[in-house]
Design a protein that fits this description.
Number of strands: 0
Organism: Aegilops tauschii subsp. strangulata (Goatgrass)
Helix content: over 70%
Protein name: Histidine-containing phosphotransfer protein
Distance between the termini: 34 Å
Order of helices and strands: HHHH
Keywords: Cytokinin signaling pathway, Two-component regulatory system
GO molecular function, one term: protein histidine kinase binding
GO cellular component, one term: cytosol
Largest sheet: none
Number of helices: 4
Length: 87
């Protein structure tokens, strides 16, 4: 598969994600931060987000099992996850 075909596929996928509401202006702002000095910046941000989200969800699952009535603990994990999603 040639490079131009991959670029078209990536552009089509990104357009679909915007059309479906999964990406928004905040994603465009992250893209604007990418330059020749950091050509993989967007990829790195997305990878960090998914790693952190997975860790936070795992922490929440463990808290639900170990501390079924500790709403403050659940809330703390949910606030971390919410903050990660908003950034």
């Amino acid at each position: 598969m040639d490079y131009s075909n991959l670029r078209r596929q990536a552009a089509s996928l990104k357009k679909g994600l915007f059309d479906q509401g999964h990406l928004d202006e905040q994603f465009r702002q992250v893209e604007d931060l990418q330059d020749e000095a950091s050509p993989n910046f967007v990829e790195e941000v997305v990878v960090v987000f998914f790693k952190d989200s997975g860790r936070l969800i795992s922490n929440l699952e463990q808290a639900l099992e170990k501390y079924p009535r500790d709403f403050n603990r659940w809330d703390a994990y949910m606030q971390q996850l919410k903050g990660s999603c908003s950034r």
